[in-house]
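Changelog note: in this version the structure field was regenerated for every chain. One regenerated record is shown below for reference.
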Amino acid sequence: MCNGCVHKQYPDRGSTCLEDGSYLLNYQGCVSCHHRDFVLITDRRHEDEAGEEVVTYQHVCKNCEHVIARHEYTFSVVDEYQEYSMLCLLCGKAEDSISILPNDPRQSSLF
């Protein structure tokens, strides 16, 4: 992974978990070829094991194929919640939890 290609390492993205795509606002440009162009997604893998879905891929410079970052996205269902997480040098870190029930029990306990 390349710290020199990004403005900020692992920016906090709150609850924004990307299964696909690139956070280009954080892309400074390729330190290898000095171009700031599109970022390609390569070596995409999708694994589903023990009820957890894991998607991994690499962000790569379009011009010289320099590896910018490794992206990992996970999804699982725990109890009555869908759990999402993302960890990537370029796209950042994020977690989210959403109830699978019509009314989220956590929300009704706030009133």
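Spot check on this record: The chain has one domain: 3-102. The longest helix spans residues 105-108.
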